[in-house]
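anyone else get weird line breaks when pasting these?? whatever heres mine. first is seq + tokens for prot A
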Amino acid sequence: MREKAKKEGLHLPIVEQFYSIQGEGFHTGKAAYFIRVGGCDVGCSWCDTKFAWDSELHEMTHIDSIIGGIKKSGADSAVVTGGEPLIYNMDPLCIELKRMKILTYLETCGSHKLTGIWDWICLSPKKNCPPDDNIYSLAGELKVIIKDEDDYAWAEINKARVSSDCKLYLQPEWSSIKKIMPSVVEYVKNHTEWSISLQSHKYMGIP
């Protein structure tokens, strides 16, 4: 069923779904309904959602149930995150969300073919599983996680591939934030096209 679901997109392995405040990136501070899809083939060592990696651990949920949760919440936007959402066909979910006039936001590393209809794409590229070439021009936001000094070069490689109006963010990796923050601050002071993204939801104590 799960392989079929990847292609059809009518059922998704849902890790969690909740109405909260966007904590990072361009839309920080805005209310949104979050849909966390299980399954990831990237496997970053510092990932703070490792519980979402194995899709087999999470119940396959029909998109009608997901949409029902959004309706009940009263949200006007939905953030689809993971795991890696693009493992699955996102067309059916997005078609229904657009029919409801819900804004659709995607958080992805971009390593799979893009599906879905998106008002905003946040591309967070990973070295060990680089993005598909076609997603760069569609990203509204480039968010690169900074854990050590080598990550700045990766950020610049990806900056050269996104559109000129793409918003550029460097985000200190949470478990290394005290160590890496001074470096990130200095880098942004010297490369003013970048901004700093903080995981403010962790400071606020919300999901």
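and prot B, same format (seq, then tokens)
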Amino acid sequence: MRSLLLQIAAVTTINLKSMPQRLWLSLSTVTAVGLVVMVLLSFLAMANGFQRTIAGSGADDVAVVLRGGSQSEINSVVTRDQVRLIEEGPGVAAGADGKPEVSGELYLTVDGIKRTTRTKANLPLRGIGPRGAALRRAIVLIEGRMFAPGSNEVVVGKALRGEFQGFDLGGTITFGSSRWTVVGVFSAEGSVFESEIWADLPVVQSLFKRNNVFQTVRARLTSPAALGTLKAYVDNDPRLKLDVTSEAAYFAEQASRTSDLIQKLGWPLAIAMAFGALAGALNTMYSSVAARATEIATLRAIGFGGFPAFVGTLIESLILAAIGGAIGAAATYLIFDGFTASTLGASFTQVVFSFQLSPRLIGQGVVLALLVGLIGGLFPAIRAARMPIVAGLYG
């Protein structure tokens, strides 16, 4: 066994020392594998960042109430009478003033202009009442003040202000035929709420002709366990043809749809590119075996077996792939990690998020790189192991 290990070490050392003789072929393989890993990880980092932004926005003790069968707020309609019935529901917490902590809200789309591309995009305008901000955790005004009730004033999320033009503090923006003044900017720990514009609910209802109509209702619960009690109350009242879910579950479902789509785009593209990298790896390793034919035959003639030649060739291929994977992962981290972008969410409005690369995702990229190296080195390694001594010495 020790003799076999020594033979493998000797063959592997010879292979690695001869790599400079195939420098450009080796570099092409490293580059191809690196590009494959970079493409895959950029998509995975995008999906991961989007999912964390959305899924991390919800709370377990806040209920989201939508019209029955609605997949998102934009498709929902809730009447004023239904909001009153929710306020009377069991399990709904009361505020310091003794009134139920319930917020009927209107969710609309308005036009915005991206700073980078100068193209139009749908932005979410949310009409909220006095309890709207309090029902969301970690909302902090970082500039200006909250909008005044009854006025054409808005506050905007920090992420939206950074990604879209015209939302600087004190600026004036136009939605339809109405003009609004930006009086505040808020942060929300990077959650999806930072991608929203907030205004006074009655003003939004009036100017957009949605009087006495809401699209979603948020209710703080006495505890997460009270969700079942409220849901049963809604299900048993024929006037309430509504769906009740926790805010955390609602956002988790919203996040999974888009992040799954992003991953379904990223993996096929990376795999398609991996076939190109695989062709390069095969070419490199076959050239490596051909260039070392005399060395392999000489080692075989003095007593080395075919297995050390097989393992040495495979290790060379795996090392090239690992280098490419490491370079691709490092490049993705330096270029994309923390990169801010926006894309359409489930409500057909823009969600601003940051790419987030995690150790788990890097591991997936490296595994793909090693898989390319393994397959790319397997057949040349078999050829090296089976090479006749005469062919190597006199070929």
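btw re prot B: Residues 2-55+255-394 form one domain. The CA atoms of residues 103 and 130 lie 8 Å apart.
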